[in-house]
Amino acid sequence: MKIAVIGTGYVGLVTGVALAEIGHTVTCIDIDSDKVKTLNHGIPTIYEPGLGEMMQRNMQNARLFFTADYARGLDRARVVYLAVGTPERPDGSANLDYVRQAARDLAAHISHPLIVVIKSTVPVGTNYKIQRLINRLVPEDMRVTIASNPEFLREGSAIHDTFHGDRIVIGTDNPAAAEVLEEINRPFGLPILHTDICSSEMIKYASNAFLATKISFINEIANLCEKLGADVEEVAQGMGLDHRIGPDFLKAGIGYGGSCFPKDTHALVQLAGNHHHDFNLLKSVIEVNRQQQRLLLEKIENRLGGDLAGKRLAVLGLAFKPNTDDMRESPALVMVPELAKRGADLIAYDPIASGRAEQLLGQVAVFTNHVDEALREADCAVILTDWPDIRKMEPETYKRLMKHAIVFDGRNCYSPNEMRRAGIDYYSIGRPNRA
Ligand code: NAD
């Protein structure tokens, strides 16, 4: 089927490549012409394992195209996916300016009736509003049908998730559109759930809010474990064996970040408030997440005698999670400036995101792609992202390179016993330092 995808960010690019891979002919449209140029050279504009090869293969097979020209992109497309950003506004609500603009751009170039699929995460009711917006701008015989198809991929494993996800949700009031979308998605071989539009929009927010709740819950348990001498890793294992709870998203640490959980939890609180519903549970989830970073800062300050001035601190990991170069809402964006404000001399390492991080934090820290360089002569190391190379590092490496082997681990990468045996003063989240 001929499909257009508007927006070639993390979601749009992966969606376009995956739809081409299962046999559709896909044209991805983006207003950023530099991005389009890079993509047309076969170079992915984001770091995502497996994406480059799949993208190049489908370009070579003439199933995948990139353009900044809406008329070309929409030419003979039967379905168009909208996958532009919905970032957070200062009040926490979702900013729909990009979605509206893309809808207007789309309406200006429609030459035949289409099914418009909104993949962006949008507040409940937005699909109807976008359908009305487009249909007001186009002649009667070119009216579009709308469908909600929220995206559940995780950055860092986006390609894997697209082909092995738990479900595909299709929300539409139009049975013919539901059938077309079922046909498009069938080759993925995943369970497909058909719902009404509002429920589909809500499924996305409810899922992210629930996952964020699991993370904040285990972080609160971790904070309590520290006070009571229990080990949160053992507690999480014991909880996760109960199939009603499940083992995923019970990893204590410095809290969640990224382009989705923070903005989607804020947007749901806002959405609830707009409808006179005080979502207290979710407000606490957000507050606990904020508190995790403050607690780690306090621990570092207390251990270093309250004064970080002139201390050389190695920050390991900057991306909001491993296997991505995405820095949006990464804990590093809070931790690095806060440590710098306290006078620390910072050298920060990330295997992939150092360049992006430098653009955002270049005023307050020095950046490197080499972990050894970060650790050399450091007074203290702070781990913010559990990249595999950081996890695999031998405890002796800290001992050998650092001036003082003091390690604060915001991701529980190592066994406290092994670190202690290697002579490292080691602090993690929710685990006692037993002798
Ligand atoms: P992104 O910021 O990475 O990409 C958005 C892209 O849209 C950019 O390339 C931008 O140039 C392009 N764009 C903006 N306006 C346009 C227009 N009028 N016409 C054509 N292109 C335009 O965003 P993302 O991370 O891919 O997120 C997209 C949506 O998917 C958001 O609603 C997000 O909440 C949701 N989502 C994201 C993820 C994730 O992991 N990133 C996962 C699930 C859902």
TrEMBL record:
Membrane-spanning parts: none
Enzymatic reactions: UDP-alpha-D-glucose + 2 NAD(+) + H2O = UDP-alpha-D-glucuronate + 2 NADH + 3 H(+)
Tree of life domain: Bacteria
Statement: the UniProt record of this protein carries the keyword NAD: yes
Annotated metabolic or biological route of this protein: Nucleotide-sugar biosynthesis; UDP-alpha-D-glucuronate biosynthesis; UDP-alpha-D-glucuronate from UDP-alpha-D-glucose: step 1/1
EC primary class: oxidoreductase
UDP-glucose/GDP-mannose dehydrogenase C-terminal domain ranges (all copies): 314-416
InterPro entries associated with the record: 6-PGluconate_DH-like_C_sf (IPR008927), NAD(P)-bd_dom_sf (IPR036291), UDP-Glc/GDP-Man (IPR017476), UDP-Glc/GDP-Man_DH_C (IPR014027), UDP-Glc/GDP-Man_DH_C_sf (IPR036220), UDP-Glc/GDP-Man_DH_dimer (IPR014026), UDP-Glc/GDP-Man_DH_N (IPR001732), UDPglc_DH_bac (IPR028357)
Entry keywords, A to Z: NAD, Oxidoreductase
Entry EC no(s): 1.1.1.22
One MF annotation (Gene Ontology) recorded for this entry: UDP-glucose 6-dehydrogenase activity
SUPFAM superfamilies from the UniProt entry: 6-phosphogluconate dehydrogenase C-terminal domain-like, NAD(P)-binding Rossmann-fold domains, UDP-glucose/GDP-mannose dehydrogenase C-terminal domain
Family: Belongs to the UDP-glucose/GDP-mannose dehydrogenase family.
Protein name: UDP-glucose 6-dehydrogenase
